[in-house]
């Protein structure tokens, strides 16, 4: 087996495990929203990801369609030779080119469209992960701003004295530090 193939397979397996770990982390309890405000922040991140995917996919489909169908339309309407989008197949003898012209063109079109879809989805997937990480940092920011709020209630009991408030604040800061550590991972 070729070393390049082995290294690509290992890289894929390594990335697959990392992606699975990231998705498992996003489903963990620390990343779940506790308040309505946090849920809105996460929902906005999801909506932004979907919007970006729609924009990227739309532009990519239009560009791919123009790139694939313009030469075919020009070939069918005018006496223009059909140019392949990827490979010219110069190794095929001239007498066989008319036989393989359309099947080879369709084959290349399918390949280009598959690569386009792969690129759109991989790029927007990683952007979506970044949007969710940014949302978690916004949630963390809001939590840190509320740490010093001694009027906040915990377990339906009002905090009355300063030492209890300080202990409660330290607990909240520790939770925020753990949350930040998980976002960094």
Describe the structure.
This is Odorant receptor. It is a multi-pass membrane protein. GO terms for molecular function: odorant binding; olfactory receptor activity. It is found in: Cell membrane. Keywords: Cell membrane, Membrane, Olfaction, Receptor, Sensory transduction, Transducer, Transmembrane, Transmembrane helix. Strands 1-2 form a two-stranded antiparallel ribbon. Helix 2 packs antiparallel against helix 3 and helix 3 packs antiparallel against helix 4. The radius of gyration is 27 Å and the shape is elongated. A hairpin with a 2-residue loop joins strand 1 and strand 2. The model has no long low-confidence stretch (mean pLDDT 83). The chain has 4 helices and 2 strands, in the order αααββα. It starts with a helix and ends with a helix. With 185 residues, it is mostly helical.
């Amino acid at each position: 087996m070729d070393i390049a193939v082995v290294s690509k397979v290992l890289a894929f397996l390594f990335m697959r495990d990392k992606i699975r770990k990231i998705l498992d982390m996003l489903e963990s309890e620390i990343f779940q929203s506790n308040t309505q405000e946090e849920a809105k922040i996460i929902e906005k991140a999801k909506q932004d990801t979907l919007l970006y995917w729609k924009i990227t996919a739309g532009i990519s489909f239009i560009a791919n369609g123009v790139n694939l169908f313009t030469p075919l339309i020009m070939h069918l309407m005018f006496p223009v030779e059909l140019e392949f989008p990827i490979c010219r197949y110069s190794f095929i003898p001239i007498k066989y080119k008319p036989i393989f012209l359309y099947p080879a063109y369709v084959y290349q079109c399918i390949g280009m469209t598959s690569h386009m879809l792969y690129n759109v989805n991989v790029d927007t997937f990683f952007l979506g992960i970044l949007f969710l990480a940014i949302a978690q940092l916004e949630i963390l920011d809001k939590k840190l701003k509320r740490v010093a709020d001694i009027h906040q209630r915990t377990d339906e009991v009002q905090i009355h004295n300063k030492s209890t408030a300080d202990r409660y604040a330290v607990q909240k800061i520790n939770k925020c530090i753990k949350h930040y550590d998980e976002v960094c991972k």
